[in-house]
Amino acid sequence: MFLINEHKPAILAISETWLVPDSRFRVPGYACLRDDRDDGYAGSAILIKRSLAYTSISLPLHSRQFNAVAVRSLNISILSIYIPHPNSSLISELKSVLSSIPSPVLVLGDFNAHHTFWGSHSCDGFATLLVDLFDELNICVLNDGTSTRRVYPNQNPRTAVDLSLCSPSLASLSSWSILPSTHGSDHYPILLSIAQRSIPVAKANPLLKYKVNRANWPAYADSVDCLVDTLPKMSDDENILLYYDSLVRILKFSADLHVPLKKTGLDFIMSPPWWDNECTVMVNKRRKAENSYSLLMSRENFLEYQRTDAEYKRLLSRKKKHGWTKFCESLDPRSPSSFVWARIKRFRCSVSSSDPTSSDESIWLDAFADTLAPPSVPTKDCFPSSSFLPSTDSLDAPFSYSELHCVLLDLKDSSPGEDGIPYSFLVNLNDKAKHSYLDMVNRFLETGIVPDPWKSQIIIPIRKPRKDPLDCNSYRPIALSSTLAKIMEHLIKNRFGVDNRKQRFACQDSVWLQ
């Protein structure tokens, strides 16, 4: 997490993951594609930012003597590989795998192969065969000779087993370097950047962008009251829509002044809830011990680093256990379930490990849309003409302020529609502004005019648990409408509910909303 927060990589290749196939693993903001071993040892994985489009690459069948996973993204094929016990029999399988990947390629992994060509102190037989294979497949080695692994005091420090390979077209564009700290591993992280590859930035656009629980509602309501006097008169159809647009602008303008905005925080992974300053101090202490050993690889410095690392692990285990116990003791029957589950997820920092093999939504999105709405609808001429004649029926009477007041009493904020206006923007208005909204609603119902924003919805597909992410039937649609329109729907629903209990009928020209 430290590395991700500091460097914000678009793609991570991880060797020796030590995950069993059914284990849960998650890094917030990243999709994870893995190749696990049944016994939980070895393993390789690729983490890729969810803002990037990617497709999993199917690899040829190979033995379980190595783990490999590949994706295609940014017009590059990325392969993550881990070979725990290299031997000459693997060369033909590696050739089959590397040859199957579309060019240009980027190969990252722990080959456990020593060769002076990439920085090791000696050459072994497997590494020599690898060099020949790389020459045959026209693959470049990006390593600059720097050691990639921290060794024991009595070992030769020139040890490079983690290789970064690429196609010739990427070699001149690539920048390769080793980070100075292992962060608890015995391998140094490798930082690789490729020029002329633009990484799309995921811009946060939350539906509810305001911190409504920290709003200055009295000041907000007074600001709206000062501006509603500038609203145009609703004398004709055009002015009615202008009135609506002006009211929306007034609500947003006043909110920007008196309701703080949310911070997105998409580029930062939060620490777990049990993390405190003592943990941070211990991290720095371990880093200092590792730096001392790197400068002078003596037995004393190595033992000091091991002691510090063990102390760090014990502290984190104790903090996590204490934090969980404290959290459980703080719960009571009145604790909101949303808070409880949100905190549990932060403790676990894990969800189902099954990420889709592709982020290409076009595979299922069109079929999903067809389940929501038909491909075509009748033209306006096919519908019977509507007449808005005066009516004496009580159902058609203009809505009163008391009806609006009853509706607003029961509303709680939820995700708004396209206009971004939550219920609380109307609930916390003064009477003057509420009357302005009510007058507008009554004019809409009197004339039959509907603003265009009320005719559209935001549809969010929510994947059902343990369902195929590439199947359109695996998603449940959530529709978000304008809250200004939904309040009007509540008014109509309440009136039909009250009057129907008395009369058990509705007038012929009434329109039912469900």
Quick synopsis:
This is Jg1323 protein. The protein contains 14 helices and 13 strands. With 514 residues, it is of the alpha+beta class.
Task: Give structural notes.
37% of the residues lie in helices and 13% in strands. It has 514 residues and is an alpha+beta fold. It has three domains: 2-194, 4-Layer Sandwich (Deoxyribonuclease I, Chain A), CATH 3.60.10; 212-265 and 355-503, no CATH class; 277-345, no CATH class. Strand 5 and strand 6 (76-82) form a beta hairpin. Helix 2 (91-100) runs parallel beside helix 3, helix 6 runs antiparallel to helix 13 (431-447) and helix 7 (277-295) packs antiparallel against helix 8 (299-330). The longest helix is centred in the middle third of the chain and has 32 residues, at 299-330.
What labels would you give this structure?
Deoxyribonuclease I, Chain A, 3 domains, disordered C terminus, 3-stranded antiparallel sheet, 514 residues, elongated
Poorly predicted regions are: 501-514
How would a crystallographer describe the biggest sheet?
A: 6 strands, mixed
Count of domains = 3
Number of helices: 14
Distance between the termini: 47 Å
Helix coverage percent: 25-40%
Strand-residue fraction? 5-15%
Average pLDDT score: 87
Globally, the shape reads: elongated
Structural class: alpha+beta
Organism: Pararge aegeria aegeria
GO molecular function: catalytic activity
Protein name: Jg1323 protein
Pfam families: Exo_endo_phos_2
Per-chain topology:
Layout lengths: L1 H6 L3 E5 L14 E6 L8 E6 L5 E3 L9 E7 L2 E7 L8 H10 L4 E6 L14 H13 L2 E2 L20 E5 L1 H4 L2 E5 L11 E5 L22 H12 L8 H22 L18 H19 L3 H32 L6 H12 L16 H8 L28 H9 L14 H4 L3 H17 L10 E6 L11 E6 L2 H21 L11
Parallel strand pairs: 6-7
Antiparallel strand pairs: 1-3, 2-3, 4-5, 5-6, 7-9, 8-9, 10-11, 12-13
Helix pairs in contact: 2-3, 5-6, 6-13, 7-8, 11-14
Protein name: Jg1323 protein
GO molecular function: catalytic activity
Pfam families: Exo_endo_phos_2
